[in-house]
Write a structure and sequence with these properties.
By secondary structure, this protein is mostly helical. The protein has one domain. Helices cover about 80% and strands about 0% of the residues.
Amino acid sequence: MPGLQDILSVASGGLVGFTLGLVGGGGSILALPLIVYAVGVTSTHIAIGTSAVAVAASAAANLIGHARAGTVKWRCAVVFAVAGMAGAAGGAELGKMVDGRRLLLLFGVLMVAIGLSMLRPLRDPGNPEIRLDRSSAAQLLPLLIGYGLAVGSLAGFFGIGGGFLVVPGLMAATGMPMINAIGSSLVSVTAFGLTAAASYSLSGLVDWRLALLFVIGGALGGLLGIGLGRRLSRHKRALSLAFSAIVITVGLYVILRSQI
């Protein structure tokens, strides 16, 4: 018989997967607070390591679909991801040195900042023909490496995939359209999640049973979210605004709880 914590792990993973399928991104930022406050993992560092595993698995599954659809700019994505992995490794090591309560406080502040950034209307001029080759390397490589290091450091520090940071990072570095940035970002999200997960796992800070249950719930929730998202596609902006409000609210809750 599954225990209450197992059920809550599947349910929490389902909520994250449902949000990812419905809104199209950013849902993984809810993984850490759900693992801490809903599932009841008392160690912030174990919660971060466990959420990193779940986020990496979810991103890898979504990457397959985008690769088949041809939306991934592989050369740009790989350079950004490799640079980001170096940042994620350093960020993960730094995160393990920070007191758990302070880490949650900083994460709550990040959630509020991300939620507020989601309120801005998105602009997607984009150049679908952009590519990394010999003629563009001098211009694109420094930007891809710089943004990759910065975003990867944050992702590793908090044990998150960081897709909500990778997408604008890729767009700023290359000028690619959002659809390509979303597909390409999943290479980095998978890589960052795996890097952070490996770092925390080597320190014995991953609950593999809960991670597996979270992933199973995420897969089921993702199917439901994608189905509903297609029906509500005309209301995508309203859904994004509602999700940003949820992220801000949860962020404020995390900040308050970290002070108790």
